[in-house]
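pasting UNC93-like protein 1 for the record, 352 residues
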Amino acid sequence: MGAGLLWAGQGAIMTSYPPVTHKSTYISIFWSIFNLGGVIGGLIPFILNYHRTQAASVNDGTYIAFMCFMSAGMVLSLAILPPSRIVRDNGSRATAVTYPSVSAEGIEILKLFANWKMLLIIPAASRSNFFYSYQFNNVNGILFNLRTKGLNNVFYWGAQMIGSLAIGYLLDFSFRSRRKRGLIGISVITVLGTAIWAGGLANQLRYTDGKWPNKLDFKDSGSSYAGPFALYFSYGLLDAMFQSLWYWVIGALADDSETLSRYSGFYKGVQSAGAAVAWQVDEHKTPLVWQLIVNWVLTTVSNPLLALLVMMAVNDDESAARGKGVEGKEPEPEPEDIWRQNFKIAMEFYLF
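structre below
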């Protein structure tokens, strides 16, 4: 429950505080700092268990270190400014949040389940953490010994830092058209995702029964370690690129903190529901090949829906995306966007 509150608030801040033209850059900065925690989280068990190659679990010091870092993060969060005090580099301000009654907010949240934009988000949101149980338990957990698992996680989360920075540059600076940047980002992730999951399938076919008797060690296993390590590293790279892209899309759907807090909460809620299902799939000993195939299919299906959302809902006029045009007036729709408006009307009518 604490994580739910944390991620909804974090998502609203990350998507509404930055300038419209640099949202992906700020998302990448967040994702890099966030995954630096994962790097440290991998280093701690690696260092503390370096000489315990046969141990089945980490020692008490690992948990104590985790609690120290979490406590430090709690104190640092007190320095976060509210939206009303945020002034961006271009002089604009983040929108202040108005607090409706509980019943009114509940109604607004329920409306999200009839919002065509949020419905297009559901497949990707549900798969965005779905693969963790497979990757953590059935790749890193089965193939490697204890200390090597910790080292692998250092590079897994380090790969996320690299991936988020790469996709962040692409989404903010690669093309003049914001919609084109989004579509190019989706294309890159689709190609990479296909290649990485294909490599994962080739690796998975080597232990379809879920058993790997001779655990791989980064020092002793030689070339046998390189392939599975590269695959696990690539999984982390793809995860960061996909999730950074999704936050960019959410941030492009609106600019006010109130709306984006609901969108972020919806995304994280669906994401957590998908993860809950995934852990139960693994708990019930579903064949590992089928777990991989499900993850691959969910990835493949969600990308076209994401492309559709970008084409229909992401505004190419970044000044208009701030919510007001020149002299505080609502921006007029461009003639070429009429078909998009008609599609939205049809979708809303159909869903209603």
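The two ends are 32 Å apart (CA to CA).
The mean pLDDT is 83.
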